[in-house]
């Protein structure tokens, strides 16, 4: 039963996927109210009211995933979560339409002075000439940030007959052409736009991105909108240039500090503002909650997440295809770790065949997850695998090859330790599953699961029989057995599987046998 803390107010409809799951126990309390239960929490859902700090993360030793029912993640310490191997997800497209529509509504209201006209009329005035507006048709709209929301705004602007100029360093020329927009450098966009709206995340690079220096290059009478994140537009510079008449007006939904009580921008008649309402529609609230609820449930059930902040996103369709290799290589990592009880300073993975159709980085992370699981007492998974490897001085290498040795796919892992080296190769075969086909240069064929015993010995008559006798004397039944050798009378191996792990006493007696070079016990859990 997974313990999931819903720390901020989320309507039951949005929690539907979790409420319907028999594997989930929901705790709808604030962090303070749930302080005595934090040690057992597997997942936490928040909106913007709760700040997930490093201290809070440390107080939840079982925490596996943090979900933000919204787009922004500035109330979550992502580096601290990543270090702990905790996945952070948000709902990047749940409020896309809501925010795009709000931005466009703000733009129209700003250009036609609708809030000011309504306030005047409510005061008993009829000053039609005081509220002459400006049409959107034919104007240059400058969009800073061409993500989901920026793209939706561009679609609507084109319907209104506006010319769309965009700045986004990640926008390709092909995509810009398909969308019918003109991609420009920021400096050029600012000089040409009649209206500028920002839609970038708030990062150190985008904080105060729009400031006095570059605003002075804009046309006199330009309009600005910020329905993204407070702090992208320098508010003091904006205020100064509105007062001086260089900027005609602004529409602000977000502020650097919220609530913006007594903010000087709110005193200006040419500024319209709303209290962070971009995502505040019934549909958006339901969408973001449902999306993160589904993400949490999917992750806890061992499936991929599609909107992780600190883990590469992967669709369910792609994951279904890559999952066999994902599970295979995790088991290979576990075999390497248990087979080399010593310091390992280098691991190299070689991929060949159809596995190269996928992004192999997620497979390498899965390998490290399996490798570290039996070695460390801290959570290690695909989120923090590379970070943990770096902290421990483990060099990771990836190679590709065309040589599949007759298989449709072939993965080889080579580990170099302080005293020896180990190589293991595996493949996935339809209808047969994962197979380990080479171990320490010995050809072999076994399914990597269960309680295994790997024995390396000299190829002498009677060795297998003596091993079998010790096992039989201790009541251990061999489930399966694989043997292999390089040449008659030389080095050989046997790989045995059992229903239960072998005891330390049995291992000691087996090690005392003549002709046994070394042996080790391996325990592999199924996927």
From TrEMBL:
Domain ACT intervals:
452-524
Q: Which InterPro entries match?
A: ACT-like_dom_sf, ACT_dom, ASB_dom_sf, D-2-hydroxyacid_DH, D-isomer_2_OHA_DH_cat_dom, D-isomer_DH_CS, D-isomer_DH_CS1, D-isomer_DH_NAD-bd
Q: Name one GO molecular function term.
A: phosphoglycerate dehydrogenase activity
> Do you know which SUPFAM superfamilies this protein is assigned to?
ACT-like, Formate/glycerate dehydrogenase catalytic domain-like, NAD(P)-binding Rossmann-fold domains, Serine metabolism enzymes domain
Main EC class of this protein?
oxidoreductase
Q: Does the keyword Repeat apply?
A: no
Give the pathway listed in the UniProt entry for this protein: Amino-acid biosynthesis; L-serine biosynthesis; L-serine from 3-phospho-D-glycerate: step 1/3
| Keyword vocabulary terms for this entry | Amino-acid biosynthesis, NAD, Oxidoreductase, Serine biosynthesis
Q: Where on the tree of life does the source sit, at the highest rank?
A: Bacteria
Kindly give the Pfam families that the UniProt entry links to this protein.
2-Hacid_dh, 2-Hacid_dh_C, ACT, PGDH_inter
- What Enzyme Commission number(s) appear in the record? 1.1.1.95
Catalysed reaction(s) here are:
(2R)-3-phosphoglycerate + NAD(+) = 3-phosphooxypyruvate + NADH + H(+); (R)-2-hydroxyglutarate + NAD(+) = 2-oxoglutarate + NADH + H(+)
What PANTHER family does this protein's entry cite?
D-ISOMER SPECIFIC 2-HYDROXYACID DEHYDROGENASE FAMILY PROTEIN (AFU_ORTHOLOGUE AFUA_6G10090)
Report the function annotation for this chain. Catalyzes the reversible oxidation of 3-phospho-D-glycerate to 3-phosphonooxypyruvate, the first step of the phosphorylated L-serine biosynthesis pathway. Also catalyzes the reversible oxidation of 2-hydroxyglutarate to 2-oxoglutarate.
**Family membership:** Belongs to the D-isomer specific 2-hydroxyacid dehydrogenase family.
Q: What is this protein called?
A: D-3-phosphoglycerate dehydrogenase
Name the source organism: Peribacillus huizhouensis
């Amino acid at each position: 039963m997974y313990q999931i803390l819903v720390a901020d107010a989320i309507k039951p409809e949005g929690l539907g996927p979790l409420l319907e799951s028999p594997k989930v126990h929901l705790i709808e309390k604030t962090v303070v109210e749930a302080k005595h239960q934090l040690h057992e929490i597997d997942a936490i859902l928040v909106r913007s009211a709760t700040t997930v700090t490093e201290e809070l993360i440390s107080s939840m030793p079982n925490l596996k995933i943090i979900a933000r029912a919204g787009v922004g993640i500035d109330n979550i310490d992502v580096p601290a979560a990543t270090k702990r191997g905790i996945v952070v997800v948000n709902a990047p497209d749940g409020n896309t339409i809501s925010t795009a529509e709000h931005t466009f509504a703000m733009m129209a209201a700003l250009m036609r002075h609708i809030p000011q006209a309504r306030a005047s009329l409510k005061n008993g005035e009829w000053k039609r000439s005081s509220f002459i507006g400006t049409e959107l048709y034919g104007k240059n709209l400058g969009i800073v940030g061409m993500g989901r929301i920026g793209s939706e705004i561009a679609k609507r602007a084109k319907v209104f007959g506006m010319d769309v100029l965009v700045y986004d360093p990640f926008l390709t020329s092909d995509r810009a052409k398909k969308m019918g927009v003109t991609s420009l450098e920021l400096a050029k966009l600012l000089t040409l736009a009649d209206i500028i709206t920002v839609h970038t995340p708030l990062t150190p690079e985008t904080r105060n991105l729009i400031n006095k220096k570059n605003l002075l290059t804009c046309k006199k009478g330009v309009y600005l909108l910020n329905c993204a994140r407070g702090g992208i537009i320098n508010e003091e510079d904006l205020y100064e240039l509105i007062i001086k008449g260089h900027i005609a007006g602004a529409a602000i939904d977000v502020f650097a500090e919220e609530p913006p009580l007594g903010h000087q921008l709110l005193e200006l008649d040419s500024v319209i503002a709303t209290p962070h309402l971009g995502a505040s529609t019934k549909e958006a609230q339901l969408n973001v909650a449902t999306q993160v609820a589904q993400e949490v449930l999917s992750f806890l059930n061992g499936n991929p997440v599609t909107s992780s902040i600190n883990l590469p996103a992967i669709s369910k369709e792609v994951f279904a295809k890559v999952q066999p290799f994902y599970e295979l290589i995790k088991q290979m990592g576990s075999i390497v770790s248990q087979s080399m009880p010593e310091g390992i300073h280098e691991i190299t993975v070689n991929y060949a065949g159809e596995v190269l159709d996928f992004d192999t980085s997620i497979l390498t992370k899965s390998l490290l997850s399996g490798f570290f699981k039996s070695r460390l007492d801290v959570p290690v998974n695909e989120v923090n695998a590379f970070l943990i490897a770096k902290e421990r001085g483990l060099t990771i290498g990836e190679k590709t090859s065309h040589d599949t040795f007759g298989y449709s796919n072939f993965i080889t892992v080579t580990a170099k330790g302080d005293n020896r080296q180990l190589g293991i190769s595996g493949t996935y075969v339809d209808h047969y599953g994962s197979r380990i086909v080479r171990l320490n240069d010995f050809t072999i064929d076994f399914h990597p699961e269960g309680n295994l015993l790997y024995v390396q010995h000299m190829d002498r008559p009677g060795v297998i029989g003596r091993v079998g006798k010790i096992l039989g004397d201790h009541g251990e039944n061999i489930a399966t057995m694989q043997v292999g050798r390089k040449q008659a009378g030389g080095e050989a191996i046997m790989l045995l599987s059992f229903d239960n792990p072998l005891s330390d006493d049995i291992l000691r007696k087996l090690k005392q046998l003549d002709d046994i070079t070394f042996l080790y016990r391996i325990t592999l859990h199924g996927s």
